Amino acid sequence: MSNKNISALSSASTPLSGSEIVPINQSGVTDSVSVANLTAGRSVSASDYTASTGNFVPATAGQGINFTANSHAPGSTSKLLNDYEEGTWTPGFATWTTAPTQVIYNKYTKVGRLVTLNCLNRGGTTIAGNTITGLPFTPALQGSAAFITLLTGTPATIPGSVDGATASIQNLGASVFGTQYWTFSVSYSV
What we know:
Layout: E1 21-26, E2 29-34, H1 35-39, E3 65-66, E4 80-81, E5 84-88, E6 102-111, E7 114-126, E8 143-149, E9 157-163, E10 168-170, E11 175-189
């Protein structure tokens, strides 16, 4: 068999199984090794890697991008980014005097343990203490929220808080939205 560069070999229709034998010549001595022995226990590393097509997909749940090479603050417990998700959620307005007439845009983004909700609605009437339910993830702690009406002379801020025990936004202030469009954005930890 004549020597060939790997690039000169004809393409195979099936991937290597690991049992194939490859001849190796070093310092005039020819020996052979299996493909599995050439690659066993080897990890691929690169200083930069660009995916020209497709996505980077971890093969195992809980794996992701590890930032351990970066310096960290005292008390740091993890440097692994292993979760990202986007989606829609359905807010509940059961305790409201009048529910919104339109639920237009209700999206969430989850990066690691941080969830951000964005919501655009029209109409509705709330009294002090009303809630918004249906959060896509149960909050780990309490947090704060701000509700801002749109299309008015002066936007009004209505305070509320994220409640981990009931997975809802609680203690809203009183407001009559009428036919106005209103929006809020809430970030909380899970």
